[in-house]
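Lab notebook page, bench 4
Experiment: in silico fold of construct C2
Operator: M.H.
Input chain length: 389 residues
Purpose: comparison with the prior construct
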Amino acid sequence: MSEFDDILDNADEAVDLPPATLPLDGWHRARGGRMVEFAGYWMPVQFRGIMDEHLWTRSHAGLFDVSHMGQLEVSGEGAAAALEMLLPGDISALAPGRMRYSLLLDDDGGILDDLMVTHRGDSFYLVVNGAMKWDDIAHLREGLPDDITLTHLDEHGLLALQGPEAVQVLARLGLEPALPDGVPVEGLTFMQAAPYLWQGRPLGVSRSGYTGEDGFEISVRATDIVALADALCADDAVMPVGLGARDSLRLEAGLPLYGHDLTPETGPVEAGLAFAISKARRAEGGFPGAESILAALAAGPVRKRVGLLLDGRLPAREGAVVFAGAEQVGTVTSGGFSPTLERPIAMAFVDAAHAAHGTALDIEVRGRRLPATVSPMPFVPHKYHRQGA
């Protein structure tokens, strides 16, 4: 169904270093989670099955353990300006309680990681990819001034509650705003965050996620995460969901996965992430790789990340070659079967000349050429709860 089919196929193979465990490890195993090594941790790839978990999240609410992600705090006078030396976003203009998608870039404009930045009022909260967090921490420590403090919030876990019923589930849980002027959790809109209390326990809640559905991400102390997961799953609308469905959901949503669709050899313009380079930063530059990135914005990229709809039922996997006639024009970076559309879908980087919507291409899979058509992304419309909607 997705890239995680390969994990399932190789789940019993030995790894060089034993994976670490997350605070919910025993919780997952007690609920029948099939545990695999991912990003250096034991994590559940599925519980009842990838298809069931995927469709449940689209119709109800899925609970994902994403505690492998890196949670970081950047604080100190001038923290916004310091972050702008490393990120291409307008961090100084980010209002308290607001979030922004951004990128860590190398000096050539290649993507070292993608991340979320939240202005918490007195600090900035960053969530980085689990497989990259140690590299990111080292990169940030090297790039930030000495008077800026970088804290790894390693005593916190992270849960994602995603799906159309997620907001009702959190409302029923009885969260209380931790600030005097705070809004009820259902009052948050997409890319907004705030602190809450649940039974006296502090939570950091954002209306965001990686599935294309409305939903929330909840930062919680590791000592409280089992109680919170139990309380959430006590609601009939909630099902625990593993990595497999998380991958198929994000693929349907057209969201790139670092290490697959994004790498240091990938620039933000060709990846379709130019929106992460804010208008002010385009004018002033001053971020890593600015010269090459601004040139790509002006001239256009030589290749583009595109969506592909495949004919038939056979999915294309990462690494499959894309052809226009006899000419090789690209490579698949993510692919699988879409439970929602009931057909194979993929993301690929293809030459810009073949990236227009509706372009007919072929993908070589197991020695066969599968017809495919360049498609707009997301494949399944996003359902974010945006301000003013």
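Observations: Residues 4-68+155-252 form a domain with the Gyrase A; domain 2 fold (CATH 3.30.1360.120). The chain has ten helices and 20 strands.
Next step: discuss at group meeting.
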